Amino acid sequence: MTFSFASLSAVALTATLAFAPVAVAQTAAPEAAAPVQDLANYTAFGSWLVNCEALSVKRSVCRLTQELTLKDSGELVVRLVALPVKDGALLFAQVPQGVYLPGGAVYRIADKEDLPQREMIWQRCLGGVCEAATGLDEAELETLSGAESVLFGYRMDADGEPLIVKVEMSRFSEGVAALRAQLPKEGE
């Protein structure tokens, strides 16, 4: 699966605008005409939650989200957003604004030292967060389906140590598959 920077940026803008205000309450998805069972807002797949937003009376967009915050202050560490697409998913990582962008944003499967880390591409900073994105093709989704967790990291400044957090991934691929099953079919 090949993603162009322009199409990734357009989707990143949509995801950024959808999450920039960091609203917890979201509009429930309207009933779909498809025979696939609808997923309710906040349906859990492990630590991932379904979040749906109405785009029109007959159409909504749903995504999986997981947010990690500091226990004491509630300050955002990372918000991960997986947006299902026909041939995989787009994964966005939103971190606090002020991150050291040249340091990059990366993830790798925990306890799998033999697998390389994956680079994410910084998209933009807006509304107090900076967002990195990457495409997940079928092969990457399959790899992630066997992972209990991934390590996600970025740098807050040039001289600082990277901030690395463990992200729970059990049932992630199941959640993406459930949302992909609800995508409009060709011609709908």
TrEMBL record:
Pfam family, one: IalB
InterPro entries reported for this sequence: IalB_sf, Invasion_prot_B
Keywords, in A-Z order: Signal
Domain of life: Bacteria
Signal peptide annotation: 1-25
Keyword Secreted annotated: no
Protein's recorded name: Invasion associated locus B family protein
Organism, scientific name: Falsigemmobacter intermedius
